[in-house]
Structure formats: structure tokens, C-alpha cells
Amino acid sequence: MAGSTQQLAVLLMAVVCSLHVWQAQAVYSGPNGVRPQGARRRFATHQIIVKKRGQKPQLVNIANPGGSDAAVRAAVRKAAGERGVAYAEPNVFLYAARVPNDPSYATQQWHLPAVGAPAAWDKQYGNAKVTVCVVDSGIKYNHPDLSGDVKKDAKGVAIGASFNVTNPGNYAPGFDDMGHGSHVAGIIGAYGNNAAGVAGINWRVSLISAKFLDSDGAGTAYGASLAIDWCNSQNATVISMSAAGDDSSQTMADSIARSNALFFAAAGNSNSSTPVYPAGFSLPPWSLPNVISVAATQKDDSLAGFSNYGPSWVHLAAPGQSIYSTYGNPYFTSMQYIAMSGTSMATPLVSGAVALAYAQRLTFTTKPPLTLQQMRNLLLQSVDVVPALNGKVSTGGRLNVTKLINGVGTI
Predict the structure, then answer these.
(1) Residues 39 and 246: beta-carbon distance below 8 Å
(2) Catalytic residue at 216?
């Protein structure tokens, strides 16, 4: 971007949407009066999730005039003790996993050569038969660098355009009213080699959106569960979720467990080794084999200062500092591209790399599709081992998409 006016707009956006500001303002405005105020809330204050045996989980309204977490826990204990109830749990909040960006330091897509993308593109640049479901704030479907890779139905309507659990029926359902989801989508699959804008790690892919984050970047576990189940119903090859919460949710874990897709989750941005969710669902008691947790690195391959870490639950790292990608926000219509930082940005780089690997597998017409475990193992075994990541992630390494692509035909 050029010009002081545009730079000021970027700076203002960084301030408005930073995690630090979210901690000091209302961060969620959803249905049924669910609105946490002040510091980021752990639980929805007037609803809990209750699953009766043989039935799907349901949201149940509770009386909580003071909006206290203690009242939520009490309601959960009461509901869990009722006859026929399999479990009850709070409807925990999750938040977009990013930190403020500094446009003065934004560089244009340094992350792609850092993971070996150019050499990988010599063999494979993507295939529309591979579908990636972006569980986030939506996608700006008419963005000039996204529209070509957004999957559409027979009538030319973007698949997922009507899916929006934050406020069904509102302005442009499913459309990105934050910008975060569009940025993530561009990292995965901005239309490449078109002499315009940016390139995704896939130049061709099918992107679908499951919107569960609102315009402030907040969503609930129940909403995430609905979004993941919708991805499952669309037979997504890969699911990418750049959001994290401090508390686990059985409802969300069950949706991931039902999936036939590899599920990529951001490790979070608290510079902590404490697990967040859904990234932590690879740990017991869930031990979900399709969950892969991603940390963020900076240009020198060291762990980014904001990134969470932990070899027991974070699997690999990828570039997440000043990542330049597509952007879409109705309040900043002139901003088509922006640099952002966070594990939110590292996660789609990895999920997109795996989508590219699935595309490469399609070229081996005599070989069967790779199983989830085979693709998981291939990804984790193909990293570049980096001394600075030793003890930070289980592989001790950073994504290398060239090695990943080269390994696809060996199985």
C-alpha cells in the first residue's frame, strides 16, 4: 500500500481489531442476548449446551441476570444430573487467533518461498477437485483474487454464502464482515498466476466458507460445532479453523471426530504452553487423530513472540508474521489486501499445503487416495527441522511444502 491516508486506515484497522482492544470492549453480539462485556468472556452467559442420549446437542437458555460464570457452571451441573442427559457443558467462546499487524513492516508474501512453494509449484499448483472449508468470519466471495477459487453451485452462487451462525438473516449472510476469513482464504487459495494481487499456496482450489465468527471476531463452541458439521456435510477435503478458546467443548470435539477431513487449528497467540481449543483436542481424553495444531514463525524461522507452543499438543510451525493476503471488510472497502500476523495466518498456510498435496495425489491415477493418517504422517515427516523450534512443537520443524509434494508419490 502507498500513501499516508491508506497507511492511516491500515493502522486504524489494526487498532480496532487487535486482540488487546477486544479485551477492553464488547467482543460478541449474537442471538438470544448473548453479549459478553469488558474482558473477553469464557462462556455465553445465558445459554448452555445440553446433549440428551440419542439426540443432538441443543442450546438451552438459563436464568442468569448477573451474567456470571458461576451461574453458568451451576446450570451445567444441574442439567448434567437430569435423567437422560449424556452431558452438559458451557457454550464457551472462541476468538480469532491473530495479533495486530504493523503495515510499515508488511512484506509481500515472503512466507511462500520460506516454505518452498516455488519448487512445489513446478509440480503442482492446485486442483478445484480439492475442497477446503474455512471455518471463520466468512469470505468476501466477490474479491477479485478469491472469486475464481470460491466453489459455486449450478446457479453460480457461492457454496456457503447462506451459512452464518452468528446472526442468520442479517446483512449479507455468510459474507465476511470482519476481514479475517477472507485473509485466511487468500493464504490458502488466492487465484494465482493471473498478473494481479497475490497468490495463494494453491493457485486453483475450491474454497467454501462456514461462518461462525462475528464482526468482532468472536464465536461460540456451539456455533463452531454447527460450522464444522456443515463442512462435513459438504465432504470437505480439508478443514481450516483459525480461532481458539481457552476452554474445551465436548460438542465441538464430537463434530471434529465425525469429520473425514484433516482438521487444522491455530495454536493461539498468548506466548503460552497452555493448550487452547480446538487445537488441544489431539490430547487425551479426546486424542483426535485428525487434529493438527499450528504455531507461527517469523522470518528467521524462530517462533513468533506471540505464538503459543508445546510439544505435547502443537505439531509444527509455519510463517505467521506480517503475512500479506486478501482482505474484505465492508467498513474498509478500499482495502483489498493487507498484512496480518498470528497463528491464524500460519494455520491456512499448512492446511493449504495439504490441499496442494491432495491435488498432487490426484495425478497418480493408479494409486489409491491417501488415508488421513498417511497424509498426517507425510506432513509431519516433511518439515524442515529448525533448532529454534526444538521443544516448542512436536516435530521440531517448520512446514516445507516441497518435501510434502515430493513425498506424495512415495506411498
Answers:
(1) no
(2) no
Burial of 370 (0-12, 13-18, 19+ CB in 10 A): middle
pLDDT greater than 90 at residue 20: no
| CA dihedral angle for residue 99, residue 245, residue 33, residue 251, rounded to 10 degrees | 150
Locus of grid cell 492446511: 351
Catalytic residue among 46, 111, 136, 382: 136
pLDDT digits (tens, 9 = 90+) for 236-277: 999 999 999 999 999 999 999 999 999 999 999 999 999 999
Candidate list 143, 180, 183, 315, residue with the active-site label: 180
How many Cβ atoms are within 10 Å of 73's Cβ, its own excluded?
14
Task: Quick: pLDDT tens for 299-337.
Answer: 999 999 999 999 999 999 999 999 999 998 877 777 889
301 is catalytic: no
Closest CA to 378 of 411, 349, 351: 411
Global pTM value: 0.84
Active-site pick, 293, 322, 344, 382: 344
* Annotation marks residue 300 as catalytic: no
